[in-house]
């Protein structure tokens, strides 16, 4: 059903203005952003499909978190998302990343563990391949920069401690948070993850840089190895 045919108090825009954004379902908020559907498919139906399970069970991204982690190429596969709609969605995603980064630059990451995990999920969780990244932090544990340093299967031999140390020195970092994604969807640390963490911790300690955590992310999930006593 087109939005204009819904009762006035059920139309997403009027509902939002009257009751606030929290009163809207995820699909209604997304429909406001998309504005229009396509031939034979209303905008609410299109929004619901975008939030549905990923292929092969559905045609979407598995919810808001999955959609926020989608790339431009991922969005291209969705029929009904032309260049304008894709551009709007990508802009919203980038604004979410930048807003989260601002929070981490202004306050110590130790006060914002959930924000840190959310930030890393936005950047890494939806990648089809493993990516190893580092959050470089100042002496007050505020964010200086996030850098993706290595790609591919991550082992002690494919992540080079020397390169991590050099980047820490370049940023004059006092501490770091290590991070990588598990495309399999599981965030359980492997034995290789534990070994890599200890290797990097020892290497960075030589230049007086602390490893605060190693976060593993996947779509819809994140795990802190520090909270598991593994750092």
TrEMBL record:
UniProt xrefs under CDD domains: MPN_DUF2466
UniProt xrefs under SUPFAM superfamilies: RuvA domain 2-like
Gene3D superfamilies, sorted: Cytidine Deaminase, domain 2
Domain of life where this protein originates: Bacteria
Keywords of this entry: Hydrolase, Metal-binding, Metalloprotease, Protease, Zinc
The keyword NAD is annotated on this UniProt entry: no
Domain MPN: 109-231
Family: Belongs to the UPF0758 family.
Family annotation (PANTHER family): DNA REPAIR PROTEIN RADC (PTHR30471), UPF0758 PROTEIN YEES-RELATED (PTHR30471:SF3)
Name this protein carries in UniProt: DNA repair protein RadC
Gene that this polypeptide is encoded by: radC
């Amino acid at each position: 059903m087109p939005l204009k045919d819904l009762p006035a108090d059920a139309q997403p825009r009027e509902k939002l203005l009257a009751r606030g954004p929290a009163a809207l379902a995820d699909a209604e908020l997304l429909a406001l952003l998309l504005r229009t559907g396509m031939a034979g498919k209303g905008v609410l139906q299109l929004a619901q499909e975008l939030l549905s399970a990923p292929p092969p069970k559905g045609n979407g991204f598995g919810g808001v978190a999955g959609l926020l982690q989608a790339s431009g190429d991922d969005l291209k596969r969705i029929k009904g998302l032309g260049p304008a709609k894709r551009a709007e969605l990508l802009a919203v995603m980038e604004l979410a990343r930048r807003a989260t980064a601002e929070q981490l630059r202004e306050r110590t990451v130790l006060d914002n563990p959930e924000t840190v995990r959310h930030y890393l999920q936005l950047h890494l969780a939806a990648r089809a391949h493993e990516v190893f990244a580092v959050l470089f932090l100042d002496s007050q544990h505020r964010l200086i920069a996030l850098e993706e340093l290595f790609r591919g299967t991550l082992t002690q031999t494919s992540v080079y401690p020397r390169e991590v140390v050099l980047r820490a020195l370049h940023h004059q970092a006092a501490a770091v948070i290590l991070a990588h994604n598990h495309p399999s969807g599981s965030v359980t640390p492997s034995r290789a993850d534990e070994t890599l963490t200890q290797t990097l911790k020892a290497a960075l300690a030589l230049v007086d840089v602390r490893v605060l955590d190693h976060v593993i992310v996947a779509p819809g999930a994140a795990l802190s190895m520090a909270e598991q006593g593994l750092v």
